[in-house]
Specification:
The chain is mainly beta. The protein contains seven helices and 57 strands.
Amino acid sequence: MVAHAEIRVVHLGGSKINFREPVITNDSRFLLCASGESVKVYSSSSEECVHDLQGHTDLVSGIVRNPSNHLQVYSCSADGTVRLWDFTDGILIKTFIIGYPIYSIYVSENHGGVVFVVVPMANDKSSELFQLVAVHLPLSGDQEVEARELSAVLCDVSPSGAASFGRKGEYIAAVKGLQLEVFFFKNQKSHRFFLKPGNKKGAKNAFTCVSCHPKEDCIATGHEDGKIRLWRNFNQKKEYTYSTLHWHHGAVNTLQFTPEGTNLLSGGIESVLVQWHYTQENQKDFLPRLGGAITHIAVSPDGSLFCTSHSDNKITIIQSCVKVSAIIQGLVKGEGVRTDLTIDPRSKALVLNGKPGHLQFYSLHRDKLLYNLDIVQQEYIHEEGLDQFEVVKAAFDTRGDWLATVEERTQKGSELEINLKLWAYDEQTQSFMLNTTVTAPHEDQIIAMCFSPSPEITMLVTISFDGHFKAWLLADHSDTKEGASWSCDFVGGYHHLKPGCCCFSADGSLLAVGFQEVVTVWSPSWELLTTLSQPPGAIRELCFGRLSCSKYLLGTSTKNQLCCWNLLTCSLEWSTPVDVSLLQADPLSENMAAFCSQSGCSDLFVFKPGEPRPLYSQKALCTGKVQRAVFAPRDQMLESCEEHAQWLNRSQLYFLTQHMDLMTFSTKTEEDRLLASSKLLMVDDSVAVTPFYLLLGKHRQQQEALTNPMAERIQLPQGSIAIKELLYTPAHVLPSASFLCSMFVRSLLISSSSASEEKEPVEEEMESEEEDSEGEAELRDARQDLGGSAAWGPGEELGAPALTKAQERELRRVKHFDHSWLSSVLEC
């Protein structure tokens, strides 16, 4: 089955928020950053995500403010489009189709209607040469507009955004390698300046970043050796000069001038924000210990707020280089994930390695870090070559009451240190507390571990290269005052072979352990039930089927074989030659996902063990091998009608690529639902949209309509346009407050004429009610004369249809009319 276009691979949760420089709005209330295929809008005070601007179909590669409207931003993407957003309401205003993959975007106030983007010199994502071009945005009322009018500005530039506009947009400077190029728009000429690769002291002169002074002709460049050069007189190619500043011992990752140009901000691997005084270059201020290495610096237009992006996927908001006011933490992704991707059964959060020695709990649905759990409980020393404890394994039980972790440390000339820790969930603190620590649980490295899903017992199984697997059992001390404790219940092995993997069945009645080329199946009483053999190659991974496919056991081997055994007949059901790098089972369905490696890329096959045809397949999913994946349960089940997309209805598949990008699959049904929910947020602009309002707002309005029927009749006078204009008029041109107050109060009062008009219908209504009572009495007398049932109600006599009160009232009025004129007509 071929992959369909309705299912797309997207960066949905846990994307990099430090990929490009963030943007602070003019009023410093919001911070915008690129996050996968969307733009996140965060509140700079509460750190909450206010809007998620979705519309791009590929990685967002840049964000800039719209110079002509401070409530709008431009975003660019590798999908070849530039989109204009209203970030306060989260609305897409316009899409400009460029037609080339875009990697950076720049704007200038002096170049109205033009954006500058970095595109490949050849229309190909694999191109290694890039150019800066000016795109003239056409004026059109259409939602999507093609912008094909491009003009080249600079050739051979860096795709990462190493460019900056100079004084009033008169020139733009870009750096790459050992070259600084300045393009002057007035005379349409460019000057290039080169540095030597290095000198005898081993300096690395390569450019890393650039920033132009906003009011003077000065360009600041950062270099790999930690130096900052201030270039002047560069409009004369042969008479340029530069001065050098040096504090960073590593490469200068980013530079940024403040809006007035009084200070220059720099950051690097030291995680220290350095503020250089422009007029007094020897004076500088420091804000240290900000976390990971600083990758980007952004400044608000008024200069009151700074923000720094860090290598640990974090954005720090700083008030005027004095103190940290807020921290927006994304999913921490280091050089590699030692633990598997696991889901916390309680919070439904993704759990994996975070900061050194920690586990991070990350909410995929809210795209927010919940908290970090300190596993090692030792101070981490940032020193290269120092051996320290690392968290390598983590597993949860079915209910989320227990967490098991393994930490290890390898020192030169000494044995491997291993600690097995078991953590109990504490209801009061809403976190995990350390319960038991087992020092040296095995004689060698622990390969894998898993909890038994059986509700009767709480058991953990660990396997190791020492040739044994151990079962750890939770002791029951409910009758005594002692707390819960763990102990080793069983130690097993098979012919001195080294185990490689283990897995419990869905009900916990079977345990499968792979010993090289043999699969052993054990009962809860630790009786060896059977052994299964397969074609040559050590067993790499084992996985039991679920629900209707629970009779199957699947395994992968090092000889590129995927095998399926029938546990009822203890025989091989089928096998296929495929190099499966990762096999993952969906806990809520019979589906299984197999990631296969082929020609440097990873392919995906979703199938049921009992069916020969796969449910879904996609070639060239990503480059490299997929090493980690997990099925995360959905909060709300999708209702997809397409057969090829039904495997995503209950769970969502996340996987981690070779480049540490967390990817998932998005269906058209899910995207339509998100679009509908975003439109729902824009129903009423006068009311603050909060989750509480969305839940109870409509219910509250219905209750008010029922309890207060007069609310529909009596409406307070609305504020006129004149009053609204008075509220926005400067105070020094307004009349006195006493004069305005009397006018405002009179406008709110209800006139006497309208009050008298309202009294008249009330009197008429009272008269009609008296008539109604008389009419009802006459009707009752008539029913008694006819011998009718007293159970009849108005309008139900002899099976007649029921009448409303208004219709009954009209009939009674007709009854009281003088019909004497009719008799005279009949006599004639």
